[in-house]
Specification:
- There is one protein chain.
- By secondary structure, the protein is an alpha+beta fold.
- Helix content is 32%, strand content 33%.
- It has three helices and four strands; from the N terminus they run E-H-H-E-H-E-E.
- The longest helix is centred in the N-terminal third of the chain and has 12 residues, at 13-24.
Length: 91
């Protein structure tokens, strides 16, 4: 199985929730990732490309491989911070 996902990584849960509220009001995921994400992927609108189970931390995999696609999930806490995750496709 493979999936493609994008994410926005921030330091605090409060910050993640604020960005999620903007997304829920129709905010553009890619633009918000470019503006706020601490991950190098932020420059590409949060795009992580394709990956397989086990390539990301478990909490991340649980969202990408088990939850609904094309919806923003999170905040999801990992050792890196708080993620908002959007799975683009899985196959």
């Amino acid at each position: 199985m493979k999936a493609c996902a994008c994410h926005i990584l921030v330091k605090t849960e409060a910050e993640a929730l604020k960005i999620k509220a903007q997304l829920n009001k129709g905010g553009n995921f890619q633009q918000l990732a470019k503006k706020h994400s601490l991950c190098p992927s932020g420059k590409k609108g949060g795009d992580l490309g394709e990956f397989r189970p086990g390539q990301m931390v478990k909490a991340f995999d649980n969202v990408v491989f088990k939850k609904a696609i094309l919806e923003v999930h999170g905040p999801v806490k990992t050792q890196f911070g708080y993620h908002l995750i959007k799975t683009l496709y899985r196959n």
